[in-house]
Amino acid sequence: MTTKQTINPEVMIASIYDSLTKSEQKVADVVKARMNESVYWSVSDLAEYANVGETTVIRFCRKLGYKGYQDFKLAVAQNKVDSNRQEVGEIDESDSMEVLAQKITAENTTTIENTLQLIQSQNMEQACQKIIHANKLFLFGVGASGIMAQQAQYRFMRLGFHAESATDSHIIAMNCALATKGDVVIGISRSGSTKDLIDALEIASHNGAFIICITNHLKSPITKYGDIVLLTSSKESPLHGGAFSSLISQMHVLDIMTRYIEIREKDRSINALQKTAKAVANKLY
């Protein structure tokens, strides 16, 4: 993956952190803790602070997508937090409703902005073209990601696509077993490590289906079977699984894709939207 220098290095570090070696994670930890200071360090300085060799620092920078340490430092400098920007801080149990609303709004805004930085237009366009020409579209996710798969199916159906979604591991596996060349399978997993989903995508991949992965982690197991990987960005601890911020980042990527497809396939979309709207019109008062 080629990383643009305008991408926030913190976002990329979070995306690949779990795939780094222990020595590289030491570098990542120092950079995250002292991001603004690191702009002024030499490669030897960072290596010393992290207690690793200089080659580990260089390897860390290249895994992020930079040519070397200088490219990495330039990206850090370009993305330094504005000192005048208001920091809303962590959520505290003493926060009033007004303060809590402000903090959560800021968090969700940051989630969308960070996800935008991870979007690679070429990958997104290729994914959309594959969907446009797909014989059949499958959308799979487990748990909270499954909710997003169902929502995306609804949207694609409204645009005229033969789309199916599933959240049950057995049904996902059976659908993947029936997927063939010409079909597109979208696997949604924040962690990228959901075994039931990954095992099923492997089956679909071997059958020749085109696989699109939507995940937070660039080097996670799910990406092994992804023909295209679309990255999202959200912070979620093990105790907060299924956080809305994860769904917001996934929804943002899917919203961009469906809007792009709707514009590119204008006639098809208008026709399908009219038909589907008419079909449910008598369900409303």
Describe the protein in words:
The chain has 13 helices and five strands. It is globular. A five-stranded parallel sheet has the order 2-1-3-4-5, with helices on both faces. The chain is 56% helix and 9% strand. With 285 residues, it is of the alpha/beta class.
Entry summary:
With 285 residues, this protein is α/β, with parallel strands linked by helices. It has helices at 9-16, 22-33, 35-38, 43-50, 54-63, 69-78, 97-118, 121-132, 144-158, 169-178, 195-206, 244-264, 266-280; strands at 137-141, 163-166, 184-189, 210-215, 228-231.
Entry keywords:
about 280 residues, alpha/beta, 5-stranded parallel beta sheet, 13 helices, 5 strands, about 55% helix, about 10% strand, globular, disordered N terminus
